[in-house]
TrEMBL record:
It comes from Roseovarius marisflavi. GO terms for molecular function: pyridoxal phosphate binding; transaminase activity. This is Adenosylmethionine-8-amino-7-oxononanoate aminotransferase. The keyword GTP-binding does not apply. PROSITE patterns: AA_TRANSFER_CLASS_3 (PS00600). NCBIfam families: PRK07483.1. GO terms for cellular component: cytosol. The keyword Transmembrane does not apply. Its cofactor is pyridoxal 5'-phosphate. InterPro entries: Aminotrans_3 (IPR005814), Aminotrans_3_PPA_site (IPR049704), PyrdxlP-dep_Trfase (IPR015424), PyrdxlP-dep_Trfase_major (IPR015421), PyrdxlP-dep_Trfase_small (IPR015422). Belongs to the class-III pyridoxal-phosphate-dependent aminotransferase family.
Amino acid sequence: MSHIFPRHTKQLPPVAARGEGCYLYDTSGKQYLDASGGAAVSCLGHGDKTIIEAVKAQLDTLAYAHTGFFTSEPAETLADLLIAHAPGDLDRVYLVSGGSEAMEAALKLARQYFVEKGEPKRGRLIARKQSYHGNTMGALSAGGNEWRRAQFGPLLIDMSHIDPCYEYRLKRDDESLEEYGVRAANLLEEELLRVGPENVMAFAAEPVVGATAGALTAAPGYFKRIREICDQYGILLILDEVMCGMGRTGSLFACEQDGVTPDILCIAKGLGAGYQPIGAMLCSRKIYETIENGSGFFQHGHTYLGHPTAAAAGVAVVSAILGRNLIPRVKTQGAKLMAALEAEFGQHPNVGDIRGRGLFQGVELVADRETKAPFDPARKIAGRIKTAAFEAGLICYPMSGTIDGQSGDHVLLAPPFIISDDQIDELVQKLSGAIETALRA
Ligand code: PLP
């Protein structure tokens, strides 16, 4: 009998035995095409010898040193590497163990920044409906995904959730995409004026929404207008690239494509590519200097901050993404995946939208393509797709989400950057079979 506390106590998973390239194998020898990289983690695929060797070499040299006493060479190198490629005046890197920790650090840093600036009233966070920023209580409070929040209210911090930028559901027919982008961003200003900008510390959003919305990209101009509003009212912009960062959308940082630099940027998942648990919070010089010239101490910390072995994996992963020219490959393979999804599902009566950027794509399912009506949640379409796909040897990331009860079911795809043309075909065929099985049930 297992003593593991599994995610689903009534659905015990198979035992994963090994990984190679885009495939995972369980102990019975069954092969799975990892079309979501777990949860947008395994950007380099499985069994990458260069990364494994880098981790082993670091373990041989220095496995761990506490940041209360030391910094380390891999942590310094990783910070230099990230800042060398980060946009704007992002200047400092705080290394943590994953995405939720990165968001917690972001929220606490935003709060401390305003306390040290002498604006202690600024405590409120504005984020978006249907968002996910992590599962620890602070990050969970920031997120707007009702399913994840439901059992834990009242949550921790003063929060507002505005509508996301969601072209498929919320753009009106009488406006251009650009006009919609500005209108969607202006919801932030409306909310700021409603709650009083002097009470707000930050706005948080994912540049491309992953798990909770199936690769929802922002309309052109949306984030530029968001940036303007943040600057006008003196609030910080926190971008959560835990899922969409590290090359996944076709640029090292997703926000580069939206032409904005946040004050705080969170990354994780693809940073360690699954070889080590690691995340990071990057912040601007302005924020760092406020702490440096104030208390000189960020009142935060975890035991595994700046973990040397995790940082060594991060250095090897970022070097591989850049050195192997994988970002152009994300764009070409992403275009092929999009074309294959369009060919397979473009006319499908239950596929309402196919969207995304790079190798971060989503398919939204609907009961009625004309009215965009979602499936009755009781049909559990997303869950059924996940099960049918897994049985067929495909790992993908179906989810159901709600925005005012409307959005229904979607499937997120985030395969390794090394995915081949044949594997794209295999992915789409297996996904198609899984969707048909789920629709028949
Ligand atoms: N932020 C986003 C956008 C995520 O997708 C996730 C995880 O899926 C997190 C934060 C939390 O990251 P982690 O699960 O590493 O704590």
